[in-house]
Amino acid sequence: MNRLFALLFISLLTASCNQQNNQNPNNMVVTEEKKQSTIAIDAHTCAMPNEAVATHLDLDVEVDFTKKQIIGKASYQIKNVIGTDHILFDTYDLTIQKVTVGNPEKETKFELGAKDKNLGQALKVTIDSTVKMLTIYYSSNPAAQALQWLDAQQTADKKKPFLFTQSESIFARSWVPCQDSPGIRFTYSAKVKVPKDLLAVMSAENPIAKNDSGIYHFNMPQAIPAYLLALAVGDIEFKSVGPRTGIYAEHSMLDKAVYEFSETEDMLVAAEKLYGAYRWGRYDIIVLPPSFPFGGMENPRLTFATPTVIAGDRSLTSLVAHEMAHSWSGNLVTNATWNDFWLNEGFTVYFERRILEVIYGLDYAEMQAALGKQDAINTMNELGMTSEDTKLKLNLNGRHPDDGMTDIAYEKGCLFLRLIEENVGREKLDAFLNKYFNEFAFKTMTTEMFIDYLKKELIKGDTILEEKLTIDQWVYNAGMPANCPNIISTRLQKVDKAIEDWVQGVKPLSHLPTREWSTHEWVHFIRHLPYPFNPQLPDQMKELDNTFHFTNTGNCEILAEWLHWVILNKYSSGYGSLEKFLTTVGRRKYVLPLYKDLVKTEEGKKMAAAIFAKAKGNYHFVTASSVEEVLK
Ligand code: BES
Ligand code: ZN
Predict the structure, then answer these.
(1) Distance 589 CA to ligand 1 centre (A)
(2) What domains appear along the chain, each with residue ranges and CATH number?
(3) CA distance linking residue 163 with residue 289, whole number of Å
(4) How far is CA 227 from CA 231, 336, 338, 423, in A?
(5) Pocket of ligand 1 (CB under 6 A)
(6) Is the pTM of this model over 0.90?
(7) What pLDDT does residue 536 have?
(8) Quick one: pLDDT at residue 32?
(9) 296 CA distance to ligand 1 middle (Å)
(10) Per residue in 510-536, pLDDT tens?
(11) Is the pLDDT of residue 336 over 70?
(12) 8-state DSSP, 311
């Protein structure tokens, strides 16, 4: 057997429970063999797929908006690999009514392990070697981490309630009992009952209109890991934007979203030209209410997106390129554990910018790359250049994976691929990546397997090249390696010049050449305003605002940058806008830095607490818990 496949096989067999690496929260059996294994152990699941693994899910649930619960059953087809007497699933605050085996169903014993605050509880189901399927009857907790239940007021149309899930990283277990590891894939089908005036969509083949029964059937024939399980329920409509692409959104958002994302099909064509056929059938996008905690989430066939990217000028569509790129890096070739997260995100950012280059040109892609590198450096400065979390290969064992998921995986990961590109040339790198996506499609990848593959397929014994790439430094060392690619963006250089002209009194604000600036140039401009502002000119904030109307901009990306200065410069005319933003938008990337700014002063702390009290009900668990951490 080829060495890589052998590794893959072993890693699948050993991708299992937390017990090997840290505490054993669930007090269940740990075998000697598992303790000793060192490859691709996923510390964030209780499942032991080397012993018994689920291969297909049939979900049959009702979405109850009154009780804020998902109630029903999850039937699994399973493979009892070693003939064990039990199978383990992950759960988080689920109520398990009963578990049956076989068809006709026969009740079997089950047991919930001790609670771990990060991992939840193992569900241990008694089976024997003849069991091929089992059914778990369950309901979710109204406070389930993955779920956000919105009332009508929190939606765009303000008429009907809305529900969406966010399963990445380890939240799927809070709405479906599952083997919740990125290294375990299964196919699924679902029957979902919702209130009759709402439509349900999933990370699967989707309906495009409501029906009279309120019952929707889904099928996902490609195997996916649990973190890609997704469901959204709301008063949504669909419009096509291309042969394989379309948009779901609430009525009042639909036309704006269709305009904003009209280049989606072109992006898909560009992506396929780069790295091979799109393997998931359709690529649709659903625009969610503003409390969605992320920019986007790459749920297969149906990207979940924040409405904050609907800027009206298609300037924030890099999000679509990003989530689409995950259809290869992440969804097709999946990080084996959350410690290998850079394999998902770093590759995706690289791929995203290659798509952007095709659609918007090199200038544009380089501007994004320069901003991205800046983000990586800022994050490193914040974490400290020697912080473990600035390594590409993370060690999240014993922590919640979300705690270590930063810009590093995205931007340092992308810079590493860019370094490879600079050294071998695009043609070779692209051929390599094509082969990589093909060979490992629907499989799992560890950092070590990738490095092996890189050496075998691209470096091929070229020691000079290998020395230049300093792989170990990039992957296993903290901070930014000295050979980090240099990125020059001519568009951003023009912005720097404009700032300088203003600061030195060469030109007033109104004479700066801002007419052609996109969102990104504005972001760069605001980010690089001199701070602290010159005390001789206390009215600089006002001058900026009067000239460019930042406080009232509808562009969330620009507003979030501006509000940072509003807080630091105590610009009270911006406080109303700040409060409105923090109480309507739940995207963590915007919200969290603003709370961090606020808590820097005593006065700000009070303001933060007061705003959070009002805003909390509009935040998804991942945003609320991050903000709570800052306010502590
Ligand atoms: N997969 C991520 C979102 C994610 C990461 C959810 C980690 C949970 C844990 C998604 O693809 C992403 O990276 N979103 C970015 C979009 C941006 C890079 C264009 C975001 O939400 O900001
Ligand atoms: Zn991503």
Answers:
(1) 10
(2) 53-228 (2.60.40.1730), 235-324 (3.30.2010.30), 328-476 (1.10.390.10), 529-631 (1.25.40.320)
(3) 10
(4) 12, 12, 11, 35
(5) 168-169, 294-298, 318-319, 322-323, 326, 345, 402, 405, 589
(6) yes
(7) 61
(8) 37
(9) 6
(10) 999 999 999 999 999 999 998 777 766
(11) yes
(12) -
